[in-house]
Amino acid sequence: MSPALIAGLVLAGLFILILIGFINQLVEKNNLEKARAKAELSNRMRRCSDLSDSFPGQLITPALKLMLTQLELHAGERLMTLDKKNQDLASRVELLRNAAAMGEAIPVTNAPVKVLTEAQAKAVRLLLEDLHAQVVWGNKQGQLDTAAAKRWVGEVRRMMVILHIEYFNNLGKQALQQGNAHKARLAFERGIQHVRKQPDKASFQAQLKQLEAHFAHASHLEQTQQKPRLEETSELTEGLKDLESEDDWKKNNIY
Predict the structure, then answer these.
(1) Structure pTM?
(2) Residue 12: what pLDDT?
(3) Nearest alpha carbon to residue 174 among 112, 238, 236
(4) Secondary element (H or E) of residue 2
(5) Which of 47, 79, 90, 239 has the smallest count of CB within 10 Å of its CB?
(6) Is the dihedral of CA 42, 47, 53, 59 positive or negative?
(7) DSSP, res 228
(8) What is the pLDDT of residues 34-43, one digit of tens each?
(9) Residues of the chain with pLDDT under 70
């Protein structure tokens, strides 16, 4: 065997080894990308499902329920191409298809949630923030066009204002029931201030009039009650500062 032939065989062997290593790297990369895609889509399905099931009944509408169903269905159909043997996934996708086919006749069974505590208000706020994130994701995936996504972002912001109004309104009514007109007045006043600082406050005139009527009633009652302790004022004033602060999710605009 000539030296040239031996050298050629060695080079061929090295080439084959390099080729095998390259192919293995491609396979590993594809498997990793597939696993990441499956995890992302599974996460999106779970979040849409949780929102659809957990959203307070007083805020969810058939249109919102339908939109969440469609986003989950889109993620599920993409996931099925990566996990074709998953029977649980196939059953879920079929269920979502049937629900989406109902359009806005889709049933909404979410129970209303009476927001009376700061913890409850924050929990609903987290749902709204996640809804905003799913709308942005749906727009990036082409499931929601820009106009529709902007409408839903506006709806999320409207619901955030309604959440604050409901919280302060409920807090004020609870204080009245407890005979604390001063605390009730402070709560209604905070609600009024929150509405008045909204750029689209004209959309909340009905709620504003109700708050103003409650505020006037509480103010009148307060005149007949003993002057409250100073700490009661600070208790409500400090209560929801972080809830009313500028939310990070609002910075993620859709263009």
Answers:
(1) 0.79
(2) 73
(3) 236
(4) none
(5) 90
(6) negative
(7) P
(8) 889 899 999 9
(9) 1, 4-10, 226-255
